[in-house]
Design a protein that fits this description.
9% helix, 4-stranded antiparallel β-sheet, single chain, Methylamine Dehydrogenase, Chain H, mainly beta, globular, 50% strand
Length: 358
């Protein structure tokens, strides 16, 4: 073989290797099935000084806004940039929800405040009973469910005009709820250790799925609609109880962190997630409808016990509060993280918003 031919073949082989390597790198960035997914981490954070306690955080994925009830108002941020875009005043609430069709927002307060989600202008207030806590928009009937730890356990409101449709006795104190969009609403009852099933057309309870001693004090809930699987996140013991959504059969139990108060499920990644007061976020992978594993424990921030899913970016948003530095408040006390991560704490404090993703 002459030197010219040998050199040409070397160039050809090198070129082919570069093409294969280039395709491999590009495929890796696209996260194919044969490559392990990048781990979750905190991608973005922001802090806002203010007063008042916090509870739930809510992502309006259609309107691209983030709602954080705090003190006597509901703070509103741009979901992409986390910059403040306004607030709904005179609303001492625990949670918020938005109907993407009517563009009407609601918060779990007494009375319930209803607003235009585009302008943030208050439309009306709605008298309800009980102690409003959680809240969810149910898409099939286009109704808002305001959940209460005392009776009535659920007040159902028409999202279009704000009229009260009725109330439901759930049989216990509800925390988080999840809708399958097909007629069933699932609600965890923290004092009864079960998942209650509601027919949204008849407003009747159709079943109670007992956790069978596997988990107690359920406070967070995730739902895989496609495979009919529920993820009940419990405080005592610190466990995720996985159930069949059709019959309540327990499929698995997995460990989570301490002090869960929120969770969810991402259908795009087939992952359930639970946020905990101890500053951890547990990610559970559903590898099949019968196989589940704790994929990762992400360290977030003390007090970051509630979360919401940004479905566009596949990111989980969490909130917490921490005492502000003396330079910002004029106080002499040193900053202490996580002391007012819930409803307690009336002095000046920093609201932390954390975005977790890959």
């Amino acid at each position: 073989m002459n030197h010219s031919n040998r050199f040409s073949r070397i160039l050809l082989v090198a070129g082919m290797a570069m093409m294969v390597f280039g395709e491999r790198v590009e495929t890796t960035q696209g996260a194919p099935a044969d490559f392990p997914a990048r781990p979750y981490k905190i991608l973005n954070t922001t802090q806002t000084l203010g007063t008042g306690g916090i509870d739930y955080v809510y992502a309006d994925n259609d309107g691209r806004r983030l709602y954080v009830p705090r003190g006597n108002q509901v703070l509103v941020f741009d979901l992409e940039t986390l910059k403040s875009v306004g607030a709904i005043t005179n609303a001492s609430a625990r949670g918020a929800a938005v109907d993407p069709k009517s563009h009407h927002g609601f918060c779990s307060s007494r009375p319930v405040v209803m607003w235009d989600s585009k302008t943030l202008e208050t439309i009306k207030t709605i008298d309800v009973q009980g102690r409003p806590d959680g809240i969810i928009f149910e898409p099939l009937t286009e109704r808002i469910y305001v959940l209460s730890h005392s009776q009535p356990n659920a007040t159902v409101i028409d999202a279009k005009d704000g009229s009260v449709i009725g109330t439901i006795d759930l049989g216990g104190a509800p925390e988080q709820a999840a809708s399958d969009g097909q007629g069933q609403l699932y609600v965890v009852l923290e004092d009864k250790d079960n998942v209650t099933v509601v027919d949204v057309k008849t407003l009747k309870v159709t079943a109670h799925y007992d956790l069978g001693g596997k988990g107690g004090g359920p406070a967070g809930l995730g739902l895989d609609v496609k495979n009919h699987i529920l993820f009940a996140f419990c405080r005592k013991p610190q466990t995720c109880v996985v159930l069949n959504a059709e019959d309540g059969k327990i499929l698995a139990t997995l460990p989570i962190g301490a002090g869960t108060d929120g969770g969810g499920f991402n259908a795009k990644t087939m992952e359930a997630f639970s946020s905990q007061r101890d500053g951890t976020l547990t990610i559970i992978k559903e590898t099949s409808p019968t196989t589940f594993e704790v994929e990762q424990t992400v360290h977030t921030k003390l007090g970051a016990k509630t979360c919401t899913l940004d479905t566009k970016n596949n990111q989980i948003v969490l909130i917490a509060t921490e005492r502000a530095p003396a330079a910002e408040t004029g106080a002499a006390a040193p900053p202490t993280a996580g002391q007012s991560g819930g409803r307690r704490g009336s002095g000046p404090a920093l609201l932390d918003i954390l975005v977790v993703g890959r």
